[in-house]
Specification:
Elements (H helix, E strand, L loop, with lengths): L1 H23 L3 E2 L5 H7 L5 H14 L16 H6 L4 E2 L15 H7 L1
Parallel strand pairs: 1-2
Helix pairs in contact: 2-3
Length: about 110
């Protein structure tokens, strides 16, 4: 009986640990997320700070690093550090590079 109880307790503990790590693993792309998502995912960022992040992004362009969040009024470096594992910085795919113009060497090689 003790073994079954101990096994059940370990199973419950493992489930709780896995649930906690799944919640901590949620990430948010600060360049594409809406204010509601930013508010939900980031710690110590409520609705007004989340709206400020979106407004800053619209006015100044995409963030290049998580640290740039500290430029938003009401967001400090401590908040950035606390959320570092939740923040993703990305955006639209970079513009395609134009095809390279052939050089004399490549033009001769094609002949």
């Amino acid at each position: 009986m003790k073994t079954a109880l101990a096994l059940a307790a370990k199973s419950v503990l493992l489930s709780l640990l896995l649930a906690g790590s799944a919640a901590a693993a949620e990430k948010v792309n600060i360049n594409t997320a809406d204010a509601a998502t930013i508010d939900r995912v980031l710690l110590n960022v409520g609705p007004s700070k989340a709206e400020a992040i979106v407004a800053y992004r619209k006015a100044n362009g995409p963030f290049k690093s998580p640290e740039q969040l500290a430029l938003v009024k009401g967001i400090g470096l401590r908040t950035v550090e606390k959320n570092r594992d939740r923040i993703v910085v990305g955006g639209a795919a970079p513009a395609a590079k134009p095809a390279a113009r052939p050089t004399a060497a490549t033009a001769t090689a094609k002949r």
